[in-house]
Design a protein that fits this description.
Elements: H1 2-9, H2 13-41, H3 47-72, H4 75-88
Helix pairs in contact: 2-3, 3-4
Length: about 100
């Protein structure tokens, strides 16, 4: 599995480790910050809380990953990754 990712992304084993580390820390950070935001919104548990939590995590994740990528030295990878993701989601034009 990891070898497939390494070949797909055309990175060295060390860069693959840093990329996966960035994904892990960025995702955990987004989840942690989303819980803090949910506390501020004072929404009770239930379906509304779950929906809002998913929306907040979805909005915070790219920001978290970009900040962490600066610390791990993988900013260019994640800049391209997020741009490709946005293009696939039709948020940005392909030739931007």
């Amino acid at each position: 599995m990891f070898e497939g990712l390494r070949k797909k992304w055309k990175v060295s084993p060390i860069r693959l480790f840093l990329i996966l580390l960035t994904f892990a820390i960025g995702g955990s950070t987004a989840g942690y910050l989303a819980k803090k935001v949910m506390t501020l919104l004072d929404v009770e548990s239930g379906i509304l809380w779950t929906i809002l939590y998913i929306v907040v995590v979805t909005l915070l994740w790219p920001i978290s990953v970009i900040v962490i990528s600066l610390l791990t030295g993988q900013f260019l990878f994640f800049k391209g990754y997020l741009k490709r993701m946005a293009t696939r989601m039709k948020i940005m034009k392909e030739d931007s």
